[in-house]
Amino acid sequence: MSIHKESFKRVTTHILSEMKLKGEKIAMLTSYDFSMASIVDKAGVDVILVGDSASNVMAGHETTLPITLDQMIYHGASVVRAVNRALVVVDLPFGTYQGNSKEALCSSIRIMKECSADAVKLEGGREILESVNRILSAGIPVMGHLGLTPQSIHKFGTYAVRAKEEEEATKLLEDAKMLEEAGCFALVLEKIPASLATKVAESLTIPVIGIGAGGGVDGQVLVAHDMLGITQEFSPRFLRRYHNLFAEMKGAVENYIEDVKSKDFPSEREQY
Ligand code: KIV
């Protein structure tokens, strides 16, 4: 029996940089489980992010801080089992890379070994550069993440747009260049002014993928549960909802309850 599951051409970090060169936009979405990842991959998304937003979406926490490395590995491995084509990136959760670069490397190695992921993502710039370098030196591809970095929510105190002032914008551009020079293969920019995101994308050769960062970047990422309308409360300006799955699923469950109570289900044909 073959151990190769794909008949598709897999997306690699090299393919993503070619896409930037050709001006072809990169489509990235989150997934945290086998069933969702299977749909997202079959639809043809280029990158699947096993985001630590699983902490909010899957576990119902208010922030991304509580999710553990073991939990991220469970989500990552579930996603990888479903994927034939997309590049799979797994977030390093809060507290597993900020302490020191050795810990960052050990966390990344666990993700690569136990999930069979393609890459890891870390939040931050110069503060985590030593960790980024150490992970990269082990041959693990790294995606950066600047702008609104939800793991630092208690420092920011708000989920408002970042880098509106010149000082923070200058630091963000410098950090982006540092991450590129270190060898990151791509960068996520979250919730920053579109003009700044465009400037960063034009200044870097690696793909820049935005969420709430306008259309001048090399690709877009959204949380799948948000764009499908499964989550309800989260409604930032940058979010385009493609469906109202919450209402559709709720309606289906209500129909099922009604059918059970009225003894309509199961019918003669639905039993043995
Ligand atoms: O965890 C996540 O889903 C993310 C995206 C919002 C980029 O980091």
Automatic annotation (TrEMBL):
<feature type="binding site">
    <location>
        <position position="123"/>
    </location>
    <ligand>
        <name>Mg(2+)</name>
    </ligand>
</feature>
<dbReference type="InterPro" id="IPR003700">
    <property type="entry name" value="Pantoate_hydroxy_MeTrfase"/>
</dbReference>
<dbReference type="GO" id="GO:0003864">
    <property type="term" value="F:3-methyl-2-oxobutanoate hydroxymethyltransferase activity"/>
</dbReference>
<feature type="binding site">
    <location>
        <position position="91"/>
    </location>
    <ligand>
        <name>Mg(2+)</name>
    </ligand>
</feature>
<keyword id="KW-0566">Pantothenate biosynthesis</keyword>
<comment type="subunit">
    <text>Homodecamer; pentamer of dimers.</text>
</comment>
<feature type="binding site">
    <location>
        <position position="91"/>
    </location>
    <ligand>
        <name>3-methyl-2-oxobutanoate</name>
    </ligand>
</feature>
<comment type="pathway">
    <text>Cofactor biosynthesis; (R)-pantothenate biosynthesis; (R)-pantoate from 3-methyl-2-oxobutanoate: step 1/2.</text>
</comment>
<feature type="binding site">
    <location>
        <position position="52"/>
    </location>
    <ligand>
        <name>Mg(2+)</name>
    </ligand>
</feature>
<dbReference type="InterPro" id="IPR040442">
    <property type="entry name" value="Pyrv_kinase-like_dom_sf"/>
</dbReference>
<feature type="active site" description="Proton acceptor">
    <location>
        <position position="190"/>
    </location>
</feature>
<protein>
    <recommendedName>
        <fullName>3-methyl-2-oxobutanoate hydroxymethyltransferase</fullName>
        <ecNumber>2.1.2.11</ecNumber>
    </recommendedName>
</protein>
<keyword id="KW-0460">Magnesium</keyword>
<dbReference type="InterPro" id="IPR015813">
    <property type="entry name" value="Pyrv/PenolPyrv_kinase-like_dom"/>
</dbReference>
<comment type="function">
    <text>Catalyzes the reversible reaction in which hydroxymethyl group from 5,10-methylenetetrahydrofolate is transferred onto alpha-ketoisovalerate to form ketopantoate.</text>
</comment>
<keyword id="KW-0963">Cytoplasm</keyword>
<feature type="binding site">
    <location>
        <begin position="52"/>
        <end position="53"/>
    </location>
    <ligand>
        <name>3-methyl-2-oxobutanoate</name>
    </ligand>
</feature>
<feature type="binding site">
    <location>
        <position position="121"/>
    </location>
    <ligand>
        <name>3-methyl-2-oxobutanoate</name>
    </ligand>
</feature>
<keyword id="KW-0479">Metal-binding</keyword>
<dbReference type="Pfam" id="PF02548">
    <property type="entry name" value="Pantoate_transf"/>
</dbReference>
<keyword id="KW-0808">Transferase</keyword>
<comment type="similarity">
    <text>Belongs to the PanB family.</text>
</comment>
